[in-house]
Amino acid sequence: MTYRIFGVISGIIFLLAGCATSSFKVGNDFSSENVSKIVKGKTTSNDMVLLFGEPFTKSVISAKDEKWVYMYSNGTAKAQSYIVTMKVETTGTQKTLDVLITDGVVSNFTYTEKGTPYTMQVN
After folding, report:
1. Around 117, how many Cα atoms within 13 Å sit in the side-chain half-sphere?
2. DSSP assigned state of 83
3. pLDDT in tens, 11-25
């Protein structure tokens, strides 16, 4: 009888606990080394396409200005559910290159790259 109760309790705990893993990729990867080749006031929009390909998004800011965004993100998210708590871990990289183009020439840009693991505990 005690083995049967133990089996039922173990089954319930097994059903309440679980895990899920998901991989993701957004955008096209681009060379981080080419960022140093961008020269404000000299690099043209054609040069940008040669260095990085087509941007992830293009936005018209004004009659003279466009904003180009190159973005790449990939990684894995893993969630583990315990009876009362949940643990979520994400790993991967994220690169973003924001470029302001004025009259066909780069007038400003920013580049960020992140690649640290992140863990979150939920109670």
Report:
1. 6
2. S
3. 555 544 566 777 778
